[in-house]
Specification:
Largest interface: A-B, 27 and 30 residues
CATH superfamily of the largest domain in chain B: Beta-grasp domain
Structural class of chain A: alpha+beta
Oligomer: heterodimer
Largest sheet of chain B: 5 strands, mixed
Strand order of the largest sheet of chain B: 2-1-5-3-4
Number of domains of chain B: 2
CATH class of the largest domain in chain A: Alpha Beta
Number of domains of chain A: 3
Number of helices of chain B: 5
Shape of chain B: globular
Chain lengths: ~290, ~160
C-alpha cells in the first residue's frame, strides 16, 4: 500500500517530506477514514506522513474568545474538553456522536473536515460555528472559511500531498449565545447519520438576535438553512417561531432518496423534527424552558 | 519492500521488530509477536474484535498502522493477567457468563479496562457507551455489562 511511513516532529519537516515525494506522499492523522479506504484499494501512495506526533498540532486553546483546535486533536479530546463543552457545545455533542469510542480515540476533528463528507458530524458543527481552517504550505499559512473548503462530496480543497491543515479556529459562544446538535441514525453508535443538524442561537431582550442552522446530508455539502435563519432574526423567542423556522429549514432541504439513509420524503419530514429539537435545546440552554 | 524498525512497549516489555511500513498493528501483534488474542473480523474499524490499548486508550488495531505504535505502550489481552492470575475484569466475565463464543471477549475486556482506569465508578449508561465500539453476536450484551459493573465495584474495594 505504501513503502515508507514517517513520523515527523515538526510541520516544516512534514512539509519537506511531502515536497520530496512530489505528490506521491500524503498526510495521515488518525487514519480512521484513510486506512479503510486504502485497504479497499481506493488510494495509491508511496509514503504516509503521520502528523499526529507534531507538538504544535496538539491541544485546544482559547485566546480572547477565539478557540483554536490543533489538527492532531481527536474527537474524544474535543468531546471531553471542558472549554468545548461550555463554549462550543454543538461541537462537543457532534464529536461524541462520531463512530465509536475506539474511532473517536484516533480520528481527528481536522480529519473530519478534510474528508469533506456531506454529513461529517464534527464538520457540520464547525459549519454552524463558522469555523476557519488554518492551512500551512510551502508558501506560508492561510485561513479558509470551512464552507469554502468543500469542493464536492468527499473532496476538499486541501491538497494532502502538499499542504497541512494545522488548526481549526472559531469564536467560542458568548453569554447570550448557545448551541446544540441533533442527529438521526439507525443506531446510537457506529451508525452514519441519516440526518444531522447543528444550530447556534443568540438571544437579546427576548428576541433571537441571530440563528445559524446547518442541516446535512441534504446537499453535496452541509446546508445553511438561510431562510429559516432569516425568519428567526429579531423574532420574539417562542415555541411557535421555532416550529416555523424548522418548517422553513425542511422546505430548503433537498434530501435524496437513499437506501442507506432513508427516502427523501421521510428525511425532509425529519429535518423539521431535528431542527425544532436542536433550536429548542439551544434556546433552553439560554433561557430555560421555551413557552 | 524495505522493512522499518518499530520499537514499542508491548505488555510491559520493550520490543523491536522489523515491520512492513504498510503493516497494521494487528498484523504485527498476531504474526510477528504471536499475540493472537486480538482478532480480525471486519478489518475496517467497525467491530472492535481487534481492540488493544495504545497508551491506555482503546483503539482498533486493524486500521492502525503499526508504525503509529512507535515508542508507545501497547496492552493486549495477553498482558492483563499477572502470573496466571486473571484480572478482576476477566474474573467477572467468567463469573457472570459474559463469554459465549469468546471472539469479542479480548476487545470487550480491554475496552472495559480503559473505561475503569479512567472512570472507576461508571453508570450503566457509561459502560454501554464505552463498549459501543465492540460488537458481540452471542450474549445480547446484558451479561457483559453486568460483569463490567461488578468488576468496577470489586476494583473499588
Amino acid at each position: 500500500m505504501w513503502e515508507s511511513y514517517v513520523l515527523p516532529t515538526s510541520v516544516a519537516q512534514a512539509l519537506a517530506v511531502l515536497q520530496a515525494y512530489q505528490g506521491r506522499a500524503r498526510l495521515i492523522a488518525g487514519g480512521t477514514d484513510l486506512i479503510p479506504k486504502m485497504k479497499a484499494g481506493k488510494r495509491r501512495i508511496d509514503c504516509l506522513v503521520d502528523i499526529s506526533r507534531i507538538k504544535g498540532l496538539q491541544g485546544i486553546e482559547e485566546d480572547g474568545g477565539d478557540i483554536r483546535i490543533g489538527a492532531a486533536v481527536t474527537h474524544a479530546e474535543v468531546a471531553s474538553s471542558r472549554l468545548i463543552r461550555e463554549r462550543a457545545t454543538v461541537l462537543a455533542e457532534a464529536a461524541l456522536s462520531v463512530g465509536s469510542p475506539l474511532v473517536r480515540n484516533q480520528g481527528t476533528v481536522a480529519g473530519n473536515v478534510v474528508s469533506a463528507q456531506p454529513a461529517g458530524d464534527a464538520a457540520v458543527a464547525l459549519f454552524a460555528l463558522e469555523a476557519s481552517i488554518e492551512i500551512t504550505g510551502q508558501n506560508g499559512v492561510r485561513l479558509v472559511p470551512i464552507a469554502e473548503l468543500y469542493q464536492d462530496v468527499g473532496i476538499s480543497r486541501v491538497d494532502s500531498t502538499a499542504e497541512i491543515v494545522t488548526a481549526i479556529h472559531f469564536k467560542g459562544s458568548r453569554g447570550n449565545q448557545a448551541s446544540a446538535f441533533a442527529r438521526l441514525a439507525q443506531r446510537q453508535a457506529l451508525a452514519l447519520p441519516m440526518l444531522n443538524t447543528a444550530v447556534v442561537v443568540a438571544i437579546r431582550d427576548g428576541r433571537f438576535a441571530e440563528a445559524r442552522i446547518v442541516v446535512a446530508p441534504v446537499a453535496p455539502l452541509p446546508l445553511r438553512a438561510r431562510q429559516a435563519e432569516q425568519g428567526l432574526k429579531d423574532a420574539p423567542v417562542s415555541a411557535d417561531r421555532i416550529v416555523e423556522a424548522a418548517e422553513a429549514a425542511a422546505q430548503e432541504s433537498r434530501p435524496r432518496d437513499s437506501l442507506l439513509r432513508g427516502s427523501a420524503e421521510y428525511r425532509r419530514n425529519m429535518v423539521r423534527v431535528l431542527v425544532r429539537r436542536a433550536l429548542e435545546q439551544a434556546t433552553t440552554r439560554l433561557i430555560g424552558k421555551v413557552a | 519492500m524495505a522493512r522499518q524498525l518499530l520499537t514499542m512497549m508491548v505488555n510491559g516489555e520493550s520490543v523491536t521488530v522489523a515491520v512492513e511500513p504498510s503493516a497494521m498493528l494487528l498484523d504485527v501483534l498476531r504474526h510477528e509477536l504471536h499475540l493472537t488474542g486480538a482478532k480480525e473480523s471486519c478489518g475496517k474499524g467497525d467491530c472492535g474484535t481487534c481492540a488493544v490499548l495504545l497508551d491506555g486508550k482503546a483503539i482498533n488495531s486493524c486500521i492502525t498502522p503499526a508504525m503509529k505504535a512507535m515508542n508507545r505502550e501497547v496492552l493486549t489481552i495477553e498482558g492483563l493477567s499477572r502470573s496466571g492470575q486473571l484480572h478482576p475484569i476477566q474474573e467477572a466475565f467468567v463469573a457472570h457468563g459474559a463469554v459465549q463464543c469468546g471472539f469479542c471477549t479480548p476487545g470487550m475486556v480491554l475496552a472495559a479496562k480503559a473505561l475503569l482506569d479512567e472512570n472507576p465508578a461508571p453508570t450503566e449508561l457509561e459502560v454501554r457507551v464505552a463498549l459501543s465500539g465492540n460488537l458481540c453476536r452471542c450474549t445480547g450484551y446484558v451479561k457483559i455489562i453486568e460483569a463490567v459493573l461488578s468488576a468496577a465495584a470489586k476494583l473499588r474495594r
